[in-house]
Amino acid sequence: xxxxxxxxxxxxxxxxxxxxxxxxxxxxxxxxxxxxxxxxxxxxxxxxxxxxxxxxxxxxxxxxxxxxxxxxxxxxxxxxxxxxxxxxxxxxxxxxxxxxxxxxxxxxxxxxxxxxxxxxxxxxxxxxxxxxxxxxxxxxxxxxxxxxxxxxxxxxxxxxxxxxxxxxxxxxxxxxxxxxxxxxxxxxxxxxxxxxxxxxxxxxxxxxxxxxxxxxxxxxxxxxxxxxxxxxxxxxxxxxxxxxxxxxxxxxxxxxxxxxxxxxxxxxxxxxxxxxxxxxxxxxxxxxxxxxxxxxxxxxxxxxxxxxxxxxxxxxxxxxxxxxxxxxxxxxxxxxxxxxxxxxxxxxxxxxxxxxxxxxxxxxxxxxxxxxxxxxxxxxxxxxxxxxxx
Length: 390
Prior knowledge:
With 390 residues, this protein is mostly helical. It has helices spanning 9-12, 15-26, 34-42, 44-64, 68-104, 110-113, 117-127, 132-159, 179-192, 198-207, 210-237, 241-264, 272-276, 278-288, 300-319, 327-345, 354-363, 378-384.
């Protein structure tokens, strides 16, 4: 008996299914909650400032990286840092799943909240070894479930069942003008972080890059926009029971895919540290959830500064024909810029966010171009000279 068309190998290998796979991979605790924070802080303008560069970043990935060969070259050069991106993604979810109920539900018990991430993480660990085909099938089901839950949320809202759950602002309002200074950081983060996401590279290589890659990531942008739309809906209704299911299922799927990527690269020497530190980092992020000194927004030091700095100072500089910065310089720059990023995003002094954005932009062109015989050329230079994206 033949399998239905939607479960056939040819269909599951196509751009549309890979795009759904990516939409679920990228629907994580940033897209599912940061718009709520930004709406509380800045109104609907904060949601728009988040959504536009986010969608643009995922679409541009397919055009800028372009070929499967270029993707493989980037992974060969940077798989250690990329494995850490996956580890931080999983750790962020562990923290988020324990902390979000305290943010959104008055009187939520920390003891109960700390139990929430445990079964989700356990299920992710169990499903991390599933095949590409199985996970692409799962992605279709996960995405369909989220769309169904979005419809149920709207129905409950229209019926008045959501009125009692309508959320009060959980995060202090700020001046909307602060978005002028916050927007460049969003642009920097969302244009660079996709390069670090191994699930993006897996999908690009899965469709073969080129035109199919561009189609995949354009569809991905459209599918992901719907998920941001769902977040915008429950930023008003609050976390009704369909929203809770959406958050749990999407978190499980994202954690599964990133756990799988860490395992896939555990044999690479530079990526072994992420595998070695996985359980201690997850335990630390879980234990930090009840601490009043730790805040959901602290995690954006990674996606707003650490990983963008790595991409700018290594991948982007190489693409422009300049030497990649050594790791000690990257670390020093992150430490120097972290106070500006923290004061700007956490403290409400948004104008300070221009400092890391300006420094990282200037650092793109700092120094002389790498010479033809330079010792640091080879791998990163070959990335910049990758084959056309045709």
